Amino acid sequence: MGHEPVLSLQKVCAYYGNLCAVRDVSLEINPGETVCIIGPNGAGKTTLLKSVSRVIPKVEGAIRYRGASTAGVAPQALVAHGLIHVPEGRQIFPSMTVEENIEIGAFAVPGGVRKDKTDAAMDMFPKLRERRRQLAGTLSGGEQQMLAMARALMGQPHLLMLDEPSMGLAPKVVSEIYRQVDLLRGRGVTILLVEQNARIALRNSDRTVVMASGEIRHQGKSADLLAGGLIASLVFGK
Amino acid sequence: MTLTSDRKLTIALLVALPVAAALTDNAFYKAVLVFGMINAVAAVGLCLMLGFAGQISLGQAAFYGLGAYGTTLMASRFGVEPVLAIAAGALLSMAVGWSISRPLSRLHDHYLAMATLAFGIIMFIVFANARSLTGGLDPGTSIAKFSIMGRDLSSMNQLFWVVWVGLVLAAFVAGNIASNQIGRSLLAVKMSAAAAASVGIDVVRAKAFVFAIGALLTGLSGGLYAYFARSFNATSFGIGYSIELLMMVVLGSLSRVSGAIVGAFIITVLPVVFENFEDYKTLTFGVTMVIIMKYMPSGLVDGILGLPGRLSRRAKA
Questions:
Q1: Which of A95, A103, A107, A135 to substitute to test the interface with B, most B CBs within 10 Å?
Q2: Strands across the sheet with A59-65, in order?
Q3: Interchain CB distance below 8 Å, B199 and A151
Q4: Which of A74, A96, A151 minimises the CB distance to B202?
Q5: Whole-prediction pTM value?
Q6: Nearest CA to A95 among A152, A134, A149?
Q7: Where are the domains of chain B?
Q8: CB-CB under 8 Å, B192 with A76
Q9: Is B187's Cβ below 8 Å from some Cβ in A?
Q10: Helices (H), chain A
């Protein structure tokens, strides 16, 4: 595949009714890269992810995933092609066991659940292995987030979109989650990450995109941004 | 979820029914048994929708009516063989269920309850007023005796077996759905539609599927009812019946096919038991519902099956 970007957005706009939540966003993500979107509440970060996974209907502009346009493609077809979105708020299946939650992650994968993949997902999150027979609803917040990520891995992602994995978690748990994100990066998974916690996001990504009011305000290498102290002025508009 | 472990209990119930029928010579009790099975078929349909997929419907009476009128029209106007007429009625109901599921697929919980309630009311008005097709409220409509290839099978004994086969069919369909990949995806939709979408489940299609199957089984139940009652009018298909079906499922079990069958029999038999206490009937119903919801929130069947464990834990404490 070489240099073809995994995901490319050109002048993407997304609407809720007549309200424009994302405006003229252009962005490319290359294989193996981790790109992070930061910005204040209501900046359109989550909406942008939803536009990519096609769960909101009113999206304009061109979105290409692995070279092909996703216009008119059903969300579940994208999942089957490895575009996996872990929605915000730890969306797990509370009355299924941990193991069942992980297995259902392979729902869209041709050939179904494979034992080795389930094992690999649990190897990545040893805590989940300990609790494999437990109902997912009884897990702690951090464990639920890990479960959502383990489930996503079962879908064999080419592009993994994580929406605020740190939301509502204790600092210690957040760093644990990001250790796993780091592991995924090490394995060459392409990641599009949305975070409110700018510091964590910058430390754990190659490139950062700053959004506010639905538009991209800045993009650049995460390391540069971290060094330059630009973030506060960009995010808070000082 | 214990969906598959339910198979044994369901089979035991299905076997117990003919035994119960053989034990009584009383035609009235036998009729109650047959009516209970007819209700059970419809309850199994709603159990799939509400219990497995979390799609509440307060408009099931409409599907029941579509099945009954569809069957009657096919048999009376076109002289179709009764078994095929029942199948046609059930398919008509299924087609309507599938088509209303599309506009309903964006609604959930209370909103879905309201919308299906409205659908039920509209269909009742149609049944009551499209008199050239349904006979309306008065004089209603009637259907010839049930027969297969010209052989009369309309005695209560024979009808028992016909309805029994219908119930076995319904339990078989529901049991299979519950224990396979589709059942998994329905459960996933029930627990979290967002998470279901994120693992690649087509949520709209899953909902359409369960609405169609629920309507199919409830329509089948309506067709059987037509041959059971032989003469009926639109009052059988009002909101009251939708609520009764909901009570059957909530009372029996939200996650078991066997629960729907048990619930159907309780709701069918209770009014018969309390026949002489008309004034206390509603009171007893209400109190029973409250007690079950308080102490057995997942239904009578799960509550009773879980009782030994609960008691032994209490004894240890």
A1: A107
A2: A19-29, A7-16, A59-65, A68-69
A3: yes
A4: A74
A5: 0.87
A6: A134
A7: 6-277
A8: no
A9: yes
A10: 45-52, 75-80, 98-104, 115-124, 126-130, 141-154, 171-186, 198-203, 222-228, 231-236
Q: Which residues of chain B are under the pLDDT cut of 70?
A: 1-5, 317
**Per-residue model confidence (pLDDT) at position B3:** 46
Cβ burial B63-79 (10 Å sphere, 16+ → b, else e): bbbbbbbbbbbbbeeee
Q: Which chain A residues are Cβ-neighbours of B201 within 8 angstroms? A: 76, 107-108
Q: What is the ipTM of this complex?
A: 0.83
Q: Which token pair is A191?
A: 């990641």
Rg (CA), chain B: 19
Query: Using the beta-carbon criterion (under 8 Å), do B200 and A148 form an inter-chain contact?
Result: no
Q: How far is B196 from chain A (nearest CA, A)?
A: 8
> Position of tokens 């973030």?
A231
What's the gap in Å between the CA of B179 and the closest CA on chain A? 13
Within an 8 Å CB–CB cutoff, is residue A124 touching chain B?
A: no
Of B45, B71, B60, nearest to B121 by C-alpha is B60
Residue B139 preceded by cis peptide, ω within 30: yes
Give the minimum alpha-carbon distance from B206 to chain A in angstroms, rounded to a whole number: 12
Out of A55, A84, A104, name the one closest to residue B184 (CB). Answer: A104
**Integer CA distances (angstroms), A52 to A25, A64, A192, B67, B153, in order:** 12, 9, 11, 43, 60
Place of tokens 């059942």: B183
Say whether B201 and A105 touch across the interface (CB within 8 A): no
pLDDT of residue B291: 86
pLDDT value of residue B281: 73
The β-bridge relationship of strands A34-38 and B231-232 is unpaired
DSSP for residue A92: -
Fold of B6-277: ABC transporter involved in vitamin B12 uptake, BtuC (1.10.3470)
Ordered per-residue pLDDT tens for chain A, 238 residues:
457 899 999 999 999 989 999 999 999 999 999 999 998 888 999 999 999 999 888 999 999 999 999 999 999 999 999 999 999 887 899 999 999 999 999 998 887 777 888 888 888 888 899 999 999 999 999 999 999 999 999 998 999 999 999 988 999 989 989 998 998 899 889 999 999 888 888 899 999 999 999 999 988 899 888 877 666 666 555 4
Return the closest-CA partner of residue A147 out of A91, A82, A76.
Answer: A91
Half-sphere exposure of B183 (CA within 13 A, CB side): 21
Residue B288: the pLDDT is 81
